[in-house]
Prior knowledge:
This protein is an all-beta fold. The chain has strands at residues 18-23, 29-34, 45-50, 55-61, 68-71, 75-79, 83-88, 95-100, 110-113, 118-123, 129-134, 145-149, 155-160, 166-171, 176-181, 187-192, 200-205, 211-216, 220-225, 266-267, 283-284, 287-290, 302-308, 311-316, 321-335, 342-357.
Amino acid sequence: MELRxxxxxxxxxxxxxxxxxxxxxxxxxxxxxxxxKQPRFPINKLCIWDDLKKKPSIFLEFLSxxxxxxxxxxxxxxxxxxKVLIHAFESKPKLLHSYxxxxxxxxxxxxxxxxxxxxxxxxxxxxxQIQLVDISPMNKDKNLISIIKAHKSKIRALSISNSGxxxxxxxxxxxxxxxxxxxxxxxxFEFRRGLDKAVITSMKFSPNDSKLAVLSDKNTLHVYxxxxxxxxxxxxxxxxxxxxxxxxxGSISATGAGGSNWSLNKSHFLxxxxxxxxxxxxxxxxxxxxxxxxxxxxxxFGVLGWSDNDSIIILWKFKGIWEKYVIVERYQExxxxxxxxNSNKAKWEVVREGWRSFGNLDD
Length: 363
């Protein structure tokens, strides 16, 4: 990983704080919103910075603080506490659509862009709802909207797959991760992160949509397998799964189309016994790792991404480092008491491969 850009906004008034940054892929355009004790820009003002010209190219001002920004090559998406606004990405941005949302103080939203479709996901108008909007140029006048009732509590994290076919969500409770089909709005998977409450700080699908990585404020990284082939965590095929009953209480089993068992993910050995609480029927991640340290002096929320289908990058803001974790397969030799033959059993692990400091960002 190499440093793409670095800018110091120096002012005689010491108002240099930047609270929010969003980059348009690897282009020269960066969205900036002021933050901190002395913000560089008002917190209700969005600046689109042209790094090629080394100056602002667009300013947009709103009636409330900007909590999130997503850039595509043709759209500027602004997330406010109770609204999502979609502008055309042009020299004088025109407001195309405005959507009301439930309280969204964390600026939760995500966008999937590919050659076929551009799906924007964000909280709906009611608690626990997900709103899906097709913002593809071909459908710009149709205003295609879908609603998914995903959770009983407020939405805290959203991630849409690269293909735009799946959306993962977590509520402010943070114990369950649900994945829905974006076309049919049906529940595909329900996974358990843990039993105690946690804040999901980051969540991303792998490039080929075969896995979902989830990071929480417990400093635990969980990876869930979405691929039916238990012999590999990779593959290029999209996931096909069947819907089980979505009663909102954790009774969804990790079962795929045709009855295939997603056996890489873990489950409780008592899951098939009757009359047990739904907790015992839950499906857990197939690999997990504590990525925090007892020596951490600050509560640092990491942001994760994938560099390939088996490699995860976590960026730590206050630590000033990025880490690389790799999913690897270990083999354990098993011997049978009834046979002189030994066999190997695969076990998946996530290991830290390396890290690097951002360097001195203050110079």
